[in-house]
Amino acid sequence: MSQKMNAIGYTKYLPISDAKSLFSFETELKTPQPHDLVVKVEAVSVNPVDIFTRRSQKTTLPEPKVIGYDACGTVEAVGTETSLFQKGDRVFYAGSYIRPGSDSEYQLVDERIVGHAPKSLTPKESAAMPLTSLTAWECLFEQLEIDFNAYQNNQSKSILIINGSGGVGSVATQLANLAGLQVIATAGNEKSKKWELEHGAKHVVDYHHDLIKQIHQLGFETVDYILDLKNLDAYWSIITKLIAPFGHIASITGSGKDMNFAPLKQKAVIFAWEWMFAKSYFETPNMITQHEILDKISNLLDEGKLKNTLTKSFTPINAENLRKATALVEDGHMIGKVTVSK
Ligand SMILES: NC(=O)c1ccc[n+]([C@@H]2O[C@H](COP(=O)([O-])OP(=O)(O)OC[C@H]3O[C@@H](n4cnc5c(N)ncnc54)[C@H](OP(=O)(O)O)[C@@H]3O)[C@@H](O)[C@H]2O)c1
């Protein structure tokens, strides 16, 4: 199968205020691989990874590159070895970092990293959720090794979430709270603070002031878990001081420096990186866990236990609206998520 479709992409890095930073073009939908679904895209969201990817483009590409790592759409066709979905199913997913993204009319995506979209949400609400939910879930329940089902045992445990109001933090605060943990989240202003308290945080601390002092004043000498969702280098010294003996730390942000792990040795602390794309990038045998996680997230949303995190949306899907959405994420103070839908 090979068909023409519209897509939005770039050939070189340009500031998002430039009309050519993201532009529409016609391209060809490739032939699906055996595990692929052909999805008609109805809504997409913008994440910091879109910005990072555009900024990393140092040369001019011969063909436009399509980014976009969150979508909700309908299955139009299925590959020869698929078994989880059928034509007509409404799905949501983040996709793979090494394949064309979701900013296109149709997308090919491996069914092992796709979930059934929540029945109670609109496409634009659903598209706000996959990348951040996968990241938050993998951080908490895989990398930090918290047991989602041990609500009673978890109640004595505390977690500090650095950046509780961004895309990932807005899901992580909710999931940690659902698992029974005492959630302390950072915020930089009253709006973020209010959002975090409405999304599972028990306490909110202001990152413009001394975090250690504020957390001690709340009655926590140390915390059992720390999740860095903003800037590991900037927060490393605070993290190493606040983490409890035998505590767990996970980070989703990169580090430009050599990390000093020495302060963690005496406390026997475990440190883990999370990269949401790792499973699909390396096609690991546990890749299908992303299908399972997204289906759990879908159920939690439909049961009303998890709130969708959409705060801003643009319509229709075109280059101009994607540039507007990207500019909001680039600003670095976005609460929740922004989507662009049909
Ligand atoms: N490894 C992975 O798999 C993975 C997955 C997703 C994202 N990421 C990375 O994780 C980071 C967060 O992404 P995101 O989409 O969740 O967030 P985001 O939406 O970009 O975060 C925006 C939030 O950051 C907060 N913030 C701004 N400056 C801060 C500071 N100095 N300290 C603490 N919080 C601050 C803002 O709160 P205020 O308005 O209150 O300042 C705002 O609500 C990005 O670097 C992204 O690339 C990695």
From TrEMBL:
Gene3D superfamilies: Medium-chain alcohol dehydrogenases, catalytic domain, NAD(P)-binding Rossmann-like Domain. SMART domains: PKS_ER. SUPFAM superfamilies: GroES-like, NAD(P)-binding Rossmann-fold domains. Residues 17-340 form the Enoyl reductase (ER) domain. One of its GO terms (molecular function) is zinc ion binding. Coiled coil: none annotated. InterPro entries: ADH-like_N, ADH_Zn_typ-1, ER, GroES-like_sf, Lipid_raft_assoc_Zn_ADH, NAD(P)-bd_dom_sf. Belongs to the zinc-containing alcohol dehydrogenase family. Quinone oxidoreductase subfamily. This is Zinc-type alcohol dehydrogenase-like protein.
